[in-house]
Amino acid sequence: MQSNHQHSGETPLDTEHRPLGGSAWCFFHTNLPVQLNKQKDHPTYLRQLAPEIINDIPVDPVKVYTDGSRNDSDCTGSGIYIKTHNQELKIQRRNPDFCSVFRSELIAIDEGLDSLSSFSCSNEIWILTDNRSSIQLLANWHRVRDNIGMNILNKLKSLSVSYRMHLQWIPSHVNIQGNEIADALAKAGADDASVPSASLTYLELFSRAKSRNKTIWIIPLVHHWHQGSRPGDCLSIDCNRHDQTTLTSFLSGHIRSLTFTDNSKCFEICPKCTAEQAAPDHILACMGLSKQDLISNPLLTLDFFKVHRLMDLI
């Protein structure tokens, strides 16, 4: 089939896909600008491209706009907007947490195909999505192995007996009304407080575990020596490397006078009071300071060490 969508700078992909049995009737059609890159192409170009795409779609066929969304809390949803010349249907769906936007888009396509039974369809059905990857996946139908992809292909195959099926890419956020409605429905589905019952895939379980581990690692530990300016820092002060290393080591308890006798820590006698071992806590107490003073004002503490001639000890 020769596509009607032609303009400079791109070559549309418009192919007929037939089932494995080798039948000659058309399975479904995909239309995807091969050279388009949403991340690199200027928004003005995408806005100019949108009317060209929409104008090539006949008025009478059923149009199924689909979209997937994922919010900052890793909650996901799908949106479906189905429109004919005298009917419309809006569907929002809450998907499992950590579900990818790609899978949410496939879920939207799958549910959109299910919902077509309530429409009096013409001889054509257009699935309109702003997700290129979903069209590319279905275009390579002979490589599809996941359940939802197989469900979509089976429904497309069943519908193609009576209707001419089209999968059409459209640019997002360029004021295409159907796409904007589907996008709003998908976001509303992601924000829905209901708990989805669908199971997660392996990749989604991996994403959830990765997110949980990331949260654990980026939160600073409660130990006092982790109260620096960044997670993992002990102290960050404006002084030379030697003094900064000295203060950091002192805060962790590893000073020069530390030795081990019978698996017990031993320190030299404090030169200031000559009464007790010069453990880090004792040194601070002997100068009338605390660990919090060292953390909040390390330069002042450093001056105390130098005035009392304790730098060689620590």
Tell me what you see in this structure:
The chain is an alpha/beta fold and 314 residues long. The protein folds into 2 domains: 26-208, Nucleotidyltransferase, domain 5 (2-Layer Sandwich); 224-312, no CATH class. The protein contains 10 helices and 9 strands. The protein has helices spanning 43-55, 101-114, 132-139, 147-159, 177-190, 202-218, 241-252, 280-286, 291-296, 298-307; strands at 12-17, 28-33, 62-70, 76-83, 88-95, 124-129, 164-169, 259-261, 264-266. The strands form 2 sheets. A 7-stranded mixed β-sheet has the order 1-2-7-6-3-4-5. The protein has a two-stranded antiparallel sheet with strand order 8-9. Helix 2 runs parallel beside helix 4 (147-159). The longest helix has 17 residues, at 202-218. The radius of gyration is 32 Å and the shape is rod-shaped. It starts with 11 loop residues before the first strand and ends in a 7-residue tail after the last helix. The model is unreliable at 1-26 (pLDDT under 50). GO terms for molecular function: nucleic acid binding; RNA-DNA hybrid ribonuclease activity. It comes from Araneus ventricosus. Pfam families: RNase_H.
